[in-house]
Design brief:
Layout (H helix, E strand, L loop, with lengths): L1 H9 L5 E6 L2 E8 L9 H4 L6 E7 L4 H18 L5 E8 L8 E8 L4 H12 L4 E8 L6 E5 L12 E5 L21 H10 L6 H6 L16 E6 L5 H12 L2 E4 L6 H8 L3 H23 L4 E4 L2 H12 L26 E6 L2 H11 L5 H8 L1 H13 L6 E4 L4 H16 L2
Parallel strand pairs: 9-11, 9-12, 10-11, 12-13
Antiparallel strand pairs: 1-2, 1-4, 2-8, 3-5, 3-6, 4-5, 6-7, 7-8
Keywords: ATP-binding, Coiled coil, Kinase, Mitochondrion, Nucleotide-binding, Pyrimidine biosynthesis, Transferase, Transit peptide
GO biological process, one term: dTDP biosynthetic process
Catalytic activity: CMP + ATP = CDP + ADP; dCMP + ATP = dCDP + ADP
């Protein structure tokens, strides 16, 4: 921990800080002295008498860092005075991969500053946190940042001035997406679950289902067709119809063998949850190889869903914050079996909501988010479209089920020679 903290502090003044309000990040930087700049946007929303703090999680163990970050939010919400305001926050070195550290920004009114600081002094003893306080200079619009030491003091040898900075070229969370939010190899995902064994006993059971390693294989003798799309776009109806029409095998993704543990891993932080679902794709790939030697294979979701939901969740704000088209975050894992064809079903949002209401089934947290957050839905759909190797072929799911089936069968005959 001490080594990681020292590394972070070495480049501390080069870091950019981001505070999110309603999904929109406000950025600021620090420097040795003010040069007449106005206060950053985030501090213009703060009363001059309020006290502000930032807590950034910096454990060197990324499994424990992910767990601590999630647990920290719960502890803050339980323990802070009711009037304190809590917002997601991050800090990063521009253009430096894996430099992002996450945490929270909190604002307390003067009457709550003492109990708030007592809580922060207790938390900082864990040595997994970097805590800063922010003060408004007297007779000035300017703010300063002071980094607390692990003795609980709020004074360090150097005080920094808080200054505005331009938004980065791309959303900062993209710096850490690869093999944290989206996994691009069996070994990377396997390593995460293997390291979870001492804190999540169920991880051992999942690992027992996996092959010792995954290799990119040549495609099976028969075509592999993946059907993708948001909930209630007609995937189940279409996949079952394709199975019956083509005499194919239908495989769900995630695979059924992971069902006993899905609820458990859905409660975990993104790093662990995403590794679990990534490994599910490799189990599905093994099943595809076995079945695809005998008959065509239809797959209900696959890596496109895993990646699209993860990218859309990691990147806050509107779709323009997504990594640019052609970014490496959209590339297919080299060691994961590629399908012959990927069909993406799309549907008018109001019609999709109507179908969801008619179904009345329970939904995951991410599916619930799709229902009430239009920006999240748009990001998921855009991420689907940007994934390459193979890319999705979009099909409108608005017409009747039979019309959609016929359109997809034409695609299969054209692309797969069936």
């Amino acid at each position: 921990m001490a080594r990681r903290t020292a590394s972070l502090l070495t480049h501390w003044s080069a870091r950019v800080f981001s505070v999110e309000f309603n999904g929109a990040p406000d950025y600021f930087a620090i420097q040795d002295k003010h040069r007449g700049e106005p206060a950053p946007q985030v501090f213009r929303k703060v009363q001059s008498s309020d006290r502000c703090y930032s807590l950034l999680v910096c454990s060197s163990d990324r499994i424990r860092r992910a767990k601590f970050y999630a647990e920290l939010k719960d502890k803050l919400l339980r323990s802070l005075p009711a009037e304190c305001e809590l917002s997601p926050m991050s800090s990063f070195l521009p253009h430096v991969k894996d430099s992002l550290i996450k945490g929270y920004f909190l604002k307390a009114n003067p009457g709550d500053s003492l109990p708030t600081e007592r809580l922060l002094r207790d938390l900082i003893q864990s040595e997994s946190l970097l805590v800063c306080s922010y003060l408004k200079c007297e007779n000035s619009r300017q703010w300063t940042q002071r980094l607390w030491t692990h003795t609980g003091s709020s004074v360090m040898s150097k005080e920094y001035c808080v200054v505005p900075t331009d938004a980065p070229d791309y959303h900062p969370s993209t710096l850490n997406i690869i093999n944290s939010d989206v996994f691009y190899s069996f070994e990377e995902a396997h390593q995460v679950l293997r390291k979870c064994g001492d804190i999540i006993p169920e991880a051992t059971s999942v690992l027992e289902l996996l092959p010792s390693r995954a290799e990119a294989r040549s495609k099976p003798d028969f075509p592999v067709i993946v059907i993708e799309g948001l909930d209630a776009t007609g995937k189940t109806t279409l996949t079952q119809s394709l199975r019956d029409t083509l005499g194919a095998v239908l495989l769900p993704s995630p695979p059924q063998c992971l069902s006993p543990w899905r609820a458990r891993f859905d409660q975990e932080p993104p790093l662990i949850r995403r590794a679990f679902y990534a490994l599910g794709n490799y189990i599905t790939a093994e099943q595809i190889v076995q079945e695809g030697m005998k008959t065509p294979v239809i797959v209900d979701r696959y890596w496109h869903s895993t990646a699209s939901y993860a990218i859309a969740t990691a990147v806050s704000g509107p779709p323009c914050n997504l990594p640019a088209e052609g970014s490496e975050v959209y590339r297919w894992p080299r060691d994961l079996l590629q399908p012959s064809l990927v069909v993406l079903l799309t549907l008018d949002p109001e019609e999709r909501k109507r179908r969801l209401r008619d179904r009345g089934q329970g939904k995951t947290e991410e599916e619930q988010e799709l229902d009430h957050n239009q920006l999240f839905r748009l990001k998921v759909e855009e991420a689907y479209r940007r994934i390459s190797g193979p890319a999705c072929v979009t099909v409108d799911a608005g017409p009747s089920a039979d019309q959609v089936l016929q359109q997809v069968l034409i695609l299969i005959r054209d692309k797969c020679q069936l």
